[in-house]
């Protein structure tokens, strides 16, 4: 049986083994005696209700709200599978829940909403927001995703982040900075081709520009080809990236480029297109589950490529799993009202720097790799690196405090670091 068919079969078995799915709810307080029930439920439960009624911020003290994130989708852009609907999106949302928990000790309710209309979707999320300490929007297609996130950020006082936009932007930017360093190229000079002009691609490209990429060196393509000045079918976000060019296809755009950022669809880049790029090309084929070009095909086609995909089964996994658990951890711990650009840039720097530090033995063991160090095949930390929680979450919490969006101070950073380590240890013990 081919490797991929075997994996597909195993994935169905993994999900259907008892208990079905990937997450469950576990009580956190004693519940085995009459006294316990009198505290947990009626009559005792009335006391925290009344306290919160008097002082709403006490919901962080008496309930699990402060460590509970909603992963919410309407199923309109599920991975690279497209608009497969809310029911079919649930395995991904449960998966995000699993990752939030194992990597950052954050509880998740996954919520799949049968609503495509942006205004109605916004009203649904606003109505359920009191339950949560934060909202992670997931797999909602562009352009609706932009307005949905903008409105929810403006109208709610808890951190809201569309993971496909900003999680992806943070991780890919950190990996890009490191790949550029390895290839000896400057971000302000490289020619960048972005395949995709959706939620992930637009937001990632905005961040690359904030980090120094030059607008005239960027060519973005959607399903119809290059986004050029004069195209009449462009929405507001795509128009932001329209340039004067005679290139019309992805194939045209890739000629002589230094960087390819794939946030579109699997298997749309051919070996010939890869060969038309400049020396030491950087290729992040991030579409899931199938990258824009297969990892093995790319490295067989040219050995100077710095190659990354969104998948766990190849080197250089550029995937937002490296971001959302730690970004929300830092934001929740200071009761942040937002996840702003300062917090995002702090996460980029922390991730990029961590990749340059020696890799711990347990990470090497988890991936069965003896020799793992900063270089072409290791441009970004591995998801099983236990230092991510301290490095990234602390950087994010600090940036939240310094940029004025926190509502809770951290004064003893050493104690906070220890608390983060303990959270991770407790989560692994329970796994
Ligand atoms: N590795 C990672 O961490 C992440 C990867 N992704 C991946 O990025 C992809 C896009 O996700 P997202 O932005 O949320 O989805 P959206 O639906 O918002 O955007 C999809 C974009 O892909 C474009 N597209 C479709 N087919 C092609 C094609 N043949 N050539 C060029 N562009 C094409 C669409 O073009 P048009 O506008 O014309 O419809 C659209 O602009 C998915 O594959 C997803 O798995 C997303 C987030 C994180
Ligand atoms: C990784 C992810 O969020 C996606 O592919 O949509
Ligand atoms: Mg996603």
From TrEMBL:
PANTHER family: NADP-DEPENDENT MALIC ENZYME. (S)-malate binds at residues 288, 319. This is Malate dehydrogenase. Residues 165-401 form the Malic enzyme NAD-binding domain. A divalent metal cation binds at residues 138-139, 164. The lineage of its organism: Bacteria, Pseudomonadati, Bacteroidota, Flavobacteriia, Flavobacteriales. Keywords: Metal-binding, Oxidoreductase. The keyword Metal-binding applies.
């Amino acid at each position: 049986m081919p490797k991929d068919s075997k994996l597909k079969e195993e994935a169905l078995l993994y999900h259907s083994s008892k208990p079905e799915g990937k997450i469950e709810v576990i009580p956190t307080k004693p519940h085995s005696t009459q006294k316990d029930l009198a505290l947990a439920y009626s009559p005792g439960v009335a006391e925290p209700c009344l306290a919160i009624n008097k002082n709403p911020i006490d919901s962080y003290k008496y309930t699990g709200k402060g460590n509970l994130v909603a992963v919410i989708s309407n199923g309109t852009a599920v991975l690279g599978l497209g608009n497969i609907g809310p029911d079919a999106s649930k395995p991904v949302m449960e998966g995000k829940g699993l990752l939030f928990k194992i990597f950052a000790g954050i509880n998740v309710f996954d919520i799949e909403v049968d609503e495509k209309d942006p205004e109605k979707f916004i009203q649904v999320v606003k109505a359920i927001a009191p339950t949560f300490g934060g909202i992670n929007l997931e797999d909602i297609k562009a352009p609706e995703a932009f307005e949905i996130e903008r409105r929810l950020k403006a109208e709610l006082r808890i951190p809201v982040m569309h993971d496909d936009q900003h999680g992806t932007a943070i991780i890919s930017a950190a990996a890009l900075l490191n790949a550029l360093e390895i290839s000896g190229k400057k971000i302000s000079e490289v020619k960048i081709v972005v395949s995709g002009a959706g939620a992930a691609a637009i937001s990632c490209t905005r961040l690359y520009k904030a980090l120094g990429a030059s607008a005239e060196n960027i060519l973005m393509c959607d399903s119809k080809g290059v986004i050029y000045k004069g195209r009449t079918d462009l929405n507001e976000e795509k128009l932001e990236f329209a340039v004067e060019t005679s290139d019309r296809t992805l194939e045209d755009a890739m000629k002589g480029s230094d960087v390819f950022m794939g946030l579109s669809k699997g298997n749309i880049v051919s070996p010939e297109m890869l060969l038309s790029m400049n020396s030491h090309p950087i290729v992040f084929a991030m579409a899931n589950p199938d990258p824009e070009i297969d990892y093995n095909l790319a490295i067989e086609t040219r050995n100077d490529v710095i190659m990354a995909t969104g998948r766990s089964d190849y080197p250089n996994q550029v995937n937002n799993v490296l971001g959302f658990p730690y970004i929300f951890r830092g934001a929740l711990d200071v009761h942040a009202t937002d996840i702003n650009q300062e917090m995002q840039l702090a996460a980029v720097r922390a991730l990029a720097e961590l990749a340059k530090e020696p890799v711990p033995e347990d990470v090497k063991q988890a991936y069965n790799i003896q020799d793992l160090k900063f270089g072409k095949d290791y441009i970004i930390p591995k998801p099983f690196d236990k230092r991510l929680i301290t490095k990234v979450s602390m950087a994010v919490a600090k940036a939240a405090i310094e940029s004025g969006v926190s509502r809770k101070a951290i004064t003893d950073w050493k104690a906070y670091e220890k608390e983060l380590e303990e959270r991770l240890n407790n989560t692994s013990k329970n796994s």
